[in-house]
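Model it.
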Amino acid sequence: MAELWTIDELIAITGGELRGAVSVPLTGVSIDSRSVAKGDIFAAIKGDRVDGHDYAHVALKAGAGLAIVSRPTDEMAAAGPLLLVDDVLKALEKIGLAARARSKAQIIAVTGSVGKTSTKEMLRLGLSASGYTHASIASFNNHWGVPLTLARMPKDTAYGVFEIGMNHAGEITPLVKMVRPHIAVITTVVGVHLGYFSSVDEIADAKAEIFLGVEPQGHAVLNRDNEYYDRLVAAARKAGIRDVVGFGKHPDAQVKLERMALHADCSCITASILGEEVIYKLGIPGEHMVLNSLAALAAVKLAGADLARASLALAAAQPPKGRGVQSLLKAPGGRLLLIDESYNANPVSVRAALALLKRAEPGKNGRRIAVLGDMLELGDEGAALHAGLAGAVDEAKVDVLYASGPLMAHLWDKIPPQRRGAYAEKSDGLAAPLLGGLKAGDVVMVKGSLGSRMGPLVDAIRGQFHPADKDGR
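Modeled.
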């Protein structure tokens, strides 16, 4: 692997003091001692729950070529070379800024109330068909994830894709000013994080902060179907962005969906991308994913990459972990389908997940089963927004509902008794009745906010029902 940074560069960038000697090429950057690779630079940042200084010696012993620390110890020094700085996170930010300054890549930043990670992954896949593409892993979209992703960007990167998240006003501004994108994508604006905002207007304004870091002659890619489109256009213009591209079904969209065929495991799409017609298959199911793919292809074309190659590449797209991953599992007498939507939840994404469940066909004597946990950060509207999902549950033809959490109780109360599986205050209380109730032919979808801890239920299902062979056995 090529050297990412030299120690002389790091000293100049951070103003740090080297203790010890670096003896291996520095080929990566990590903040997690559990996943350190040989030659990584380990940045010992202090998180909400864990202080990297407690694990710096572990990282060095595991193969890290250097540890960046602010509080060195003899144990660390004995384990390997240290770069001593005043503030490790600030040092990581400086390295990220240096990576951006030396890069000649076309840079794309993605934000939005929903769909950030899937759109980022589509961009990674599509752009990789035209050149080396560097993108954030998982959802590294916050005050440490963005500088870490920048710091990891190789000098010869052709395309860089960065996800930028927020749940408070003012969070996006410093991050986008580090990234300095040529293209800013806002997937959509809807009522999430309402616990931190007094209105969706305020959420739109917070998302519009992404325009403040866009490079001169840059572009904005916006959802033309979203009710906040005009508000976002005005913000883009105020930030000096002249080229605003709308995507969606709207007749005035420059990136327009012409036709789509939705299937249980993929979609087939015809679209006009800035005047160029493309016909392609998207490996991720769901209408919401189709619209996100339009945003991705718009950015591909604006970045000067090969649109035809990118659209072909999207056939291999897969949903990120916990965002619609489908698994066929063995069950006594047949098989069942698990749809893992456990990563996070809000009213829009739950409705989209229920639409996926509707499109999935149960096997013989099978049922559509929804397992829903609380949607968090909805403020005073939480109870009403949960109860309001009853229509979507009906529309999805859900046969059995399992629900957990005090907010989801408001939906539970709206469901007729014959369609109730089980309710529990916490998700772990659903494990026994859910696992005991699943059978061959069922399609089960699990969805909830991270704090609702629905992921362990997915793990429990996978633990009891093992993967089926490719032919379903």
